[in-house]
């Protein structure tokens, strides 16, 4: 079962992340620490083992499904935040449009010149 | 009516009902999405979330009961975040190739992604709790949940913010690329992942594998950067605990 041992690696890195946070009080989540550790480990070994790929690929593909149970919660707090929603929606929609424009404009200015030469 | 209630109680004694419900909504959401020819304004996750919320309301299943069962799925977010280390490693050569523009763009764009919405919400008079819940709106869920808990926000509102931001990013990117005449898939992918986290990344993989790779890169880097920046920024301006 390569996927199973790969999954154990992922769990272990997450748990190591928890331990690191416990001792250092870093303001990062244990998943992020595990992600960085995994990336460093893979870079040192120079390749992705088939067991880690077998576990990581399906998990990444399911990312959208894994956030669904939480996302649905928003429909059940609609009443609690009555009167706040227009501010929240305007902030999110307008903020997202502005940041998308800024990101793409920045990237275009930074990357195009080297491309055209 | 009481027979229905007791049946529902029986079914929800194990987490399997909640897990099955989530899988059903996800699969139907994906099916409808394919049937509608993948509209950019209606991603599969939005269809699935609406279906799931509707099903819970119809059955009269309390969200808390459902969520308790669905923990069996959400606990996988931990290892799924760790798994993002793999695409990050696989894209290391590309990061190195474009490291300068990306290194300049990322901190600015990731900071602004949080800042614009926070500033607008603050100007419109939102409470500290709402601001703390919106701050991580462009960050992939497993990282964003951790950030929001640290800032003292509501995770349920954060998840809604993630959904709205992710869904809004897709048409925003296609409009802006048309306006700025950008057709480089690396740029489009990076912008989708940076602003629209997992939902934008799923979209980028539909455009092309290159766009998808740069989207996961943008998503991972934004997640890491924001996870370090926001708690510090919050402490500096003296909000939360």
From TrEMBL, chain A:
Topology versus the membrane: Multi-pass membrane protein
Transmembrane segments: 20-43, 55-79, 85-107
UniProt entry keywords in alphabetical sequence: Cell membrane, Membrane, Transmembrane, Transmembrane helix
Record has Cytoplasm as a keyword: no
Domain of life (superkingdom): Bacteria
Principal subcellular localization: membrane
Keyword Ion transport attributed: no
Subcellular location: Cell membrane
A GO CC annotation given for this chain: plasma membrane
Name of protein: CidA/LrgA family protein
Organism: Vreelandella glaciei
UniProtKB/TrEMBL annotation, chain B:
UniProt subcellular location: Membrane
Transmembrane segments: 6-29, 41-64, 70-89, 101-124, 155-175, 187-205, 211-234
Pfam family, one: LrgB
Keywords, alphabetical: Membrane, Transmembrane, Transmembrane helix
Gene Ontology cellular component terms for the protein in this record: membrane
Membrane topology (UniProt): Multi-pass membrane protein
Protein name, per record: LrgB family protein
Organism: Vreelandella glaciei
């Amino acid at each position: 079962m390569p996927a199973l041992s790969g999954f154990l690696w992922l769990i272990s890195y997450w748990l190591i992340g928890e331990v690191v946070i416990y001792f250092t009080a870093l303001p990062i989540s244990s998943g992020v620490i595990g992600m960085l550790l995994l990336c460093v480990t893979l870079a040192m070994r120079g390749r992705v083992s088939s067991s880690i790929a077998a576990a990581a690929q399906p998990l990444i593909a399911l990312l959208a499904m894994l956030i669904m149970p939480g996302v649905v919660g928003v429909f059940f707090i609609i009443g609690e935040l009555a009167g706040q929603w227009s501010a929240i929606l305007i902030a999110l929609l307008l903020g997202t449009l502005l940041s998308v424009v800024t990101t793409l404009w920045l990237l275009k200015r930074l990357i195009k010149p080297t491309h055209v030469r | 009516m009481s027979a229905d209630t007791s049946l529902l109680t029986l079914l929800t004694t194990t987490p399997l009902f909640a897990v099955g419900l989530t899988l059903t909504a996800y699969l139907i959401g994906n099916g409808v999405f394919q049937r509608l020819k993948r509209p950019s304004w209606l991603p599969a996750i939005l269809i699935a979330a609406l279906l799931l919320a509707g099903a819970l309301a119809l059955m009269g299943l309390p969200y808390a009961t459902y969520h308790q069962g669905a923990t069996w799925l959400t606990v996988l977010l931990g290892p799924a975040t760790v798994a993002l280390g793999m695409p990050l490693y696989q894209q290391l050569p590309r990061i190195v190739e474009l490291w300068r523009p990306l290194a300049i763009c990322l901190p600015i764009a990731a900071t602004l992604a949080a800042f614009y919405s926070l500033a607008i919400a603050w100007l419109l008079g939102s409470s500290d709790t709402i601001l703390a819940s919106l701050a991580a709106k462009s960050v992939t869920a497993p990282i964003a949940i951790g950030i929001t808990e640290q800032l003292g926000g509501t995770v349920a509102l954060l998840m809604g913010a993630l959904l709205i931001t992710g869904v809004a990013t897709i048409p925003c990117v296609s409009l802006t690329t048309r306006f700025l005449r950008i057709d480089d898939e690396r740029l489009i992918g990076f912008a989708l992942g940076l602003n629209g986290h997992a939902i934008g990344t799923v979209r980028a993989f539909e455009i092309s594998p290159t766009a998808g790779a740069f989207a996961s890169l943008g998503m991972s880097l934004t997640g890491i950067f924001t996870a370090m920046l926001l708690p510090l920024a919050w402490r500096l301006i003296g909000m939360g605990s």
